[in-house]
Amino acid sequence: MKFIYLFFINFLLLISCKKEKINNDVYKHNTLKSKKIKDTLIKTSRNTINKFNESKIKRDTLNDKNAIAFFTEYGKQNTENKVRFKTRLGDIIIKLYADTPLHRANFIFLTKKEYFNTTCFHRVVPNFIIQGGNSENRSTAIFRNKYKQYLLPAEFRKKRKHKKGIIAQARDWEYNPEKKSTPFEFYFVLNQRGEHHLDNEHTVFGEVVKGMSVINEISKLKAGNDEWPYNDVYIKAEIINE
C-alpha cells in the first residue's frame, strides 16, 4: 500500500513539472516576441556584430566638455554633406545643412564609424515621424556605451522648420533645459503640413533629397504598442562624395 501511495505522489509531481515546463516555454516565447528577436534581425546584423569586440573597446574620451571643439575641428577636416541610407525598401539620400555644423559633423562621424550600420528604424508613428539610430543589437549597445559621454548643443535656425522630409535630432525632454541633442537618434517628419510645434525644440539639420517614397513605405509598417515595427528595417549608411 505504501508503494502505491509513493507511486501516486511521484506521478502527480511528474505531471506538475511537465505543466510548469510548458508554462515556462510559453512565457519565454511571449518574451522573445515582445522583444522582436527575429531571424531577419540576426541575419542582417551578423557581419556588423562580428566587427565589434567588446574586450577591445575602451570608453572614449569624447565628452560634453570637449565635444564642441572636437566636432568643430572634425567638421573642418570632413566637409561631406550627403549620406545615403540603404534599406531593404530602397535608398534614402540626405543632405546635411552647413549652418548646423556640429550636427552635420556628428552625423558624418557616426556614418564613418559605421554606427548606423548596426541600427534600424525603431519607431514608426504614421503621419508624424519615423525614428532611427537604435536597435536591439549588442553591437549598437557597445557603441553607445563607448560614446555616451557627450550631447550636442542645440543649433536652432529661424529658417530651419519642421517641414515634411526634414531630418532632426532626438533629445531627452526631462532635465535638459538647454535642449541638447542625443548624438545617436534622429527622425524624419512625415506630415505634409509639418510638425511646427517641434520648431526650436529639436535641431533640424538636414533634409531628404531623394527617397521620400521609401520613408513613406517605412511609415506604413505595422508596429506594436511601443511603436517599434514588427519587421525591422535596417540601415546601411555611406557617405556620398560629390
Describe the structure concisely:
The chain is an alpha+beta fold and 242 residues long. 35% of the residues lie in helices and 18% in strands.
Task: Provide a descriptive summary of the structure in words.
The chain has a single domain, classed as Cyclophilin-like (Cyclophilin, Beta Barrel), CATH 2.40.100.10. It is 35% helix and 18% strand. It is globular and about 40 Å long. It is of the alpha+beta class and 242 residues long. The protein has an eight-stranded antiparallel β-sheet with strand order 3-4-6-5-7-2-1-8. Strand 1 (82-87) and strand 2 (90-96) form a beta hairpin. The chain has helices at 2-34, 39-50, 67-77, 101-112, 138-146, 212-219; strands at residues 82-87, 90-96, 120-125, 129-134, 166-169, 186-189, 204-210, 236-239. Mean pLDDT is 82; it is low at 2-57.
Structural class category = alpha+beta
| Spatial shape | globular
In CATH, the homologous superfamily goes by the name Cyclophilin-like
CATH class: Mainly Beta
Number of individual domains: 1
The amount of beta strand, in percent, is 15-25%
**Low-confidence regions:** 2-57
Ends distance: 90 Å
Order of helices and strands: HHHEEHEEHEEEHE
> How confident is the prediction overall: mean pLDDT?
82
**Share of residues in helices:** 25-40%
- Number of strand segments: 8
Annotation field: number of helices: 6
